[in-house]
Specification:
alpha/beta, 11 helices
Length: about 290
């Protein structure tokens, strides 16, 4: 028999906590959940009592989350995300209407690889309110974990714990030097303009360059491939970019001769074990076919 006493928490209390963490003030958090500041404060105090750890600490005239609060907050976000998914699924089952489908994609997926799949889905499922967010992989995965998105197309994550990952396609990453650059041995390549430190693509690029013997001296960063390509044209530095993005448009870059430096895998990602709607399944099938 399990002697562990589970805390008697409510979804409303968890909703209060998430609002208090995301909003700048308690007053705005109370407005976000449709209660008075005093009701919000009382609900959070009761949550703190039931959890048994300190969640807030005083800061001036306000309050801030403690270090212990992070575990409780992540739990609250997961519960609210899955509760919301269940509510949408049951509503769709009762009404027969698909409702909203919240999809996130990195830019190359939305613009270059899967626009036809999106157009076909919109044409085939006019009952679905498709809401598309375009952002880097890390931001999309964070929103997926928080329950703000239902399905994400991004660079395949390293740690897929709690995620259902469907690999869609590989795409080549090539080396691009500023126009007029004399190309020597890899040890002479660079300096580099590249993606931010939290980028999965940057990690792939850094490892591939290391294997060739090139130094990875970074002089500029941007999360937008178009900006990195512009920096290459201006002579700021070299870059390793997805071929689909670097070589399209009125001023395509020319890659170094030979095979691509590396490849990255794009995948469709969902939270594992959640209530998947027919609309999400249909879009995933269309992406897989593409």
């Amino acid at each position: 028999m399990n002697d562990q006493i589970l805390p008697n928490l409510t979804v409303q209390q968890l909703e209060y906590l998430v609002a208090a963490a995301r909003e700048p003030t308690f007053a705005s958090a109370a407005r976000a959940v449709g209660v008075s500041p005093s009701a919000l404060s009382q609900g959070l105090a009761e949550l703190e009592r039931r959890v048994g750890v300190r969640i807030f600490r005083p800061v001036g005239r306000g309050r801030a989350l403690t270090e212990d609060a992070d575990v409780v907050l992540r739990y609250a976000e997961r519960v609210l995300a899955e509760t919301g998914e269940l509510a949408r699924w049951t509503a769709q089952r009762r009404s027969g209407h698909a409702g909203p489908l919240r999809v996130g994609m990195i830019d190359v997926a939305a613009v270059d690889h899967f626009p036809a799949a999106l157009r076909t889905f919109r044409a085939d499922r006019p009952d679905v309110d498709l809401r598309l967010t375009v952002a880097p992989s890390a931001a999309l995965l964070d929103q997926l974990h928080r329950g703000s998105l239902d399905l994400v197309v991004c660079v395949v994550p390293d740690d897929d714990t709690g995620l259902a990952v469907t690999r869609l396609r590989e795409e080549p990453l090539a080396v691009y030097a500023p126009p007029g650059t004399r190309i020597g041995r890899p040890a002479t390549w660079g300096p580099w303009v590249t993606f931010p430190p939290d980028s999965r693509t940057r990690a792939i690029v850094a490892e591939a360059l290391r294997r060739t013997g090139a130094r990875f001296d970074v002089v500029a960063e941007s999360g937008q491939p178009e900006v990195l390509a512009a920096m290459v044209r201006l002579g700021v530095g070299w870059s390793v970019l997805p071929v689909a993005q670097a070589q399209r448009g009125p001023e395509p870059l020319t890659p170094l001769p030979g095979e691509a430096l590396a490849r990255r895998t794009l995948a469709a990602v969902q939270r594992a074990g959640h209530a998947t709607t027919p609309a999400a399944q249909a879009l995933l099938a269309g992406l897989t076919d593409t």
